[in-house]
Structure formats: C-alpha cells, structure tokens
Amino acid sequence: MKSSFSKIIDSETPVLVGFYADWCGPCKMLGPILKQVKDEMGEAVKIVKIDVDKNQSIAAKYQVRGVPTMLLFKNGKQLWRQSGVLQKNDLIQIVKSHA
C-alpha cells in the first residue's frame, strides 16, 4: 500500500485523503460528504479513504493522531490538513484554493 500511496498522492490533480476508522462516529458522517465532493468536482479531485487501523504505517508517517483527519496533496506535497468533519462546500473551497 505504501508505494502505491506515494504514487496516488504524486498527482497533478489534487488528492484529498480522508483518514478514518470503522469505530469512529464522525468518520461515518464524513463518508457521504466526501462522496458529494467527488460527485460535484468530478475529475478535478481524487479522493482516497485510508483506514488507520489497516494502514498504521501511513497514518504514522503523516502523524494522524485522531480521526477523521483529512490531508490534501498535490504533486506529492501536503498542502493542507485538518481533523474533524467539514461540510461539502468547505472542502470544495479548500480543494479549489489549492488546485
């Protein structure tokens, strides 16, 4: 997963990564919001969900201490991060501001 994760985030297209866990209540709210962002933005953004319990090395590398945490990458560089649930319009603005 690690090498493919590096390939995924090394993209001209902004990549929004959502770190989550199955046991996390707020994470369940974030799933449908990420889908709405993808539906609205289409090819302008890639969205990847990472289960921290199954991908602990990636979570550790990016110092994800709590879930949900979202990171935005472009060309392999981290441009933004925030923990907690954000609304669709806020996420779209953040992606557009870094596109």
TrEMBL record:
Residue span, Thioredoxin domain: 1-99
GO cellular component: cytosol
SS bond partners: C24-C27
Highest taxon of source: Bacteria
CDD domains from the UniProt entry: TRX_family (cd02947)
Assigned keywords, A-Z: Disulfide bond, Electron transport, Redox-active center, Transport
Keyword Transport: yes
GO molecular function terms attached to this record: protein-disulfide reductase activity
Listed Pfam families: Thioredoxin (PF00085)
Keyword Electron transport tagged: yes
One Gene Ontology term from the biological process aspect of the record: cell redox homeostasis
Entry's family note: Belongs to the thioredoxin family.
NCBIfam families, per database record: thioredoxin
Name by which UniProt lists this protein: Thioredoxin
